[in-house]
Design a protein that fits this description.
Keywords: Membrane, Transmembrane, Transmembrane helix. By secondary structure, this protein is mainly alpha-helical. It is 73% helix and 0% strand. The longest helix is centred in the last third of the chain and has 32 residues.
């Protein structure tokens, strides 16, 4: 019902925009960066070949490897240990105001000549939070009781997520500010799109690999079956 309602609102509003919004014919069209898709890819290839851009792309493609497991797997492991998914979803609600305020605060520190300084400073704290998340997963079954989890447990989880959001947005805003700063204004859209795409890819591929490695790297023991390992899915079912 939720998706149906907002899908209908989306369709109605976009249709109204298409019907009633008129373009201003008096404005002279700005010069297009490229004339077609072929020119766009040629331009992207010429940008990528620049030594500084190539080095930067390699850096941002690998910069987030250190916290990929903590980011991708922590929530799943908490659910596996018995934390209700609904409770974790509710903890995301207090994060919304923080996510709105953080970019406004951080942008003051990334507006200078060296926006990546904020990125560098936030990285060690985000790596340390990975260790804190690992401790949180280990601690979860220790505090579980028949009635669920105590309130102080959720307070700790909420504070951990809040600290994680601060480091995450510090790095995110810094990298966006840097991309905007170094992009050539003449081809700003193409340049920014390229750098932002590489930045997003640098966050997605390590998380995918981390999720794929969870099972092979998890040590399992079988209870009540001597000599039987649970290393594979088939063995665990047996």
């Amino acid at each position: 019902d939720f998706l149906f309602f907002w899908g209908a609102v989306f369709l109605i509003t976009t249709t109204l925009v298409a019907l009633f919004k008129k373009e201003n014919k008096e404005l002279t069209p700005t010069k297009e960066e490229t004339k077609g898709i072929t020119d766009t890819y040629r331009l992207l290839f010429s940008i990528i070949k620049m030594p500084a851009v190539l080095t930067f792309c390699l850096l941002i493609l690998t910069a987030k490897v250190g916290f990929s497991a903590a980011d991708a797997v922590t929530g799943l492991k908490l659910v596996e240990e018995g934390v209700p998914k609904e409770h974790l979803a509710l903890l995301a609600v207090p994060m919304v105001p923080l996510q709105i305020i953080l970019p406004l605060i951080i942008s003051k520190y990334t507006a200078g000549p060296q926006p990546l300084n904020t990125f560098y400073k936030a990285m060690p704290f985000r790596l340390l939070l990975g260790l804190e998340f690992a401790f949180l997963v280990w601690w979860t079954p220790q505090v579980k009781h028949e009635g669920g989890f105590p309130v102080y447990y959720y307070v700790v989880v909420l504070l951990s997520y809040a600290l994680h959001q601060i480091t995450l947005y510090s790095m995110y805003v810094a990298i966006m500010a840097f991309n905007a700063k170094v992009s050539d204004p003449l081809i700003g859209g193409t340049y920014m799109t390229l750098l932002n795409t590489v930045s997003n890819l640098g966050g997605n591929w390590p998380s995918t690999v981390a999720l794929w490695l969870v099972d092979p790297l998890t040590v399992k023991e079988c209870a009540g079956a001597q000599g039987q390992t649970c290393g594979t899915t088939v063995a665990a079912e047996v």
